[in-house]
Amino acid sequence: MPELPEVEQVAQKLDAMVKELRIKQAWLLRDRLAPDTTPAEFSSKLTGARITIVHRRGKFVIFDLDNGNSLVTHLRMSGRFMLLGPDQPEAKFTHAVFELDGDRRLIFQDQRHFGFMKVVATDRLSEEPAIVKLAPEPFSNAFNVDYLYRTLRSSGKSLKEFLLDQSRVCGLGNIYACEAMFLARISPLRRAKNLSRSRAARLHESIRTVLSEAMKSLERVVPDPVVVGEGIYGSGSLTNWMVYDREGEPCLDCGRPIRRIKQGGRSTYYCPTCQR
Question: What span, in angstroms and rounded, lies between the C-alpha atoms of 191 and 9?
Fold first, then answer.
């Protein structure tokens, strides 16, 4: 599943591609993609509106429109957008189509059918349940050491499970959580509430460092003129991971083998020697 750097990349690319274009017609082809609205309502709320900006909150991609509505989208496991010309056929597993100015179509394709869309009033975005529960953005002033330490102290979860909770830390997924814990030299098995303030400060810095480095790596990707999202999920081809997906390989610091364990149904990679 894409994490904050990948979703930010998708939002930036979409903004560059479709900003200021008008949605001439919108079709919802899979009802469960937008379960809170009918296909007719979906179309009526979007058709005729101009896209003023595409941005991100957490792992959500948000299209703000000039009619007072916003389209909130979550890519989940395999969702991606494609901007097609008039002669390009729609891809298999196309679940929504937006006919735009200039005979272009923006389609949402999702092979695994986990994607999500919802049309909400733009001035009510901050009240949307999925948005309300999100933690502060990791590069915002609100996400500071005091916030992280206080939030850690209130959780009985393991550190790895804590970092994947979007209501606690926004934007991290399995890959960057593993990388941040290694950089901070903290075991994923530790209880979040048992971290000292000094370790919380180290973890805070590591989270920002890992996300920042990932975003820099993604900036070096040559943009695909059609597909938005293809080949960036997981970003493994862009970065030499310190621990993620390196089970049995030598730790870059101590040379001992990287270990993989299961936590909450997800694989966790870490160095038992360096991370205590």
Answer: 32
Asked if residues 106 and 81 have their Cβ atoms less than 8 Å apart, the reply is yes
* 41, 66, 71, 79, 122 from 118: Cα distances, Å: 11, 16, 6, 15, 12
The two three-digit tokens of residue 162, written as one number: 């804590």
User: Over 50: is that where the pLDDT of 130 sits?
Assistant: yes
Residue ranges in the chain assigned as alpha helix (H): 4-18, 39-46, 129-132, 145-153, 159-164, 174-184, 197-219
The amino acid occupying position 38 is T
The rounded percent of the chain whose pLDDT value lies above 70 is 92
Q: How confident is the model at residue 240 (pLDDT cuts 50, 70, 90)?
A: confident
Residue found under tokens 């370790």: 199
The answer to whether 114 touches 93, Cβ cutoff 8 Å, is no
What integer is the mean pLDDT of 74-95? Answer: 89
Residue 59 burial (CB < 10 Å; 0-12/13-18/19+)? Answer: buried
Active site amino acids: 2-3, 59, 266
Task: Report the helix count and the strand count for the chain, using DSSP H and E.
Answer: 7, 11
Maximum Cα–Cα distance across the chain: 60
pLDDT exceeds cutoff 80 at 236? no
Which pLDDT does position 226 carry in this prediction? Answer: 61
CB 43 within 8 A of CB 25: yes
Contact 53, 14 (CB under 8 A): no
pLDDT for res 223: 56
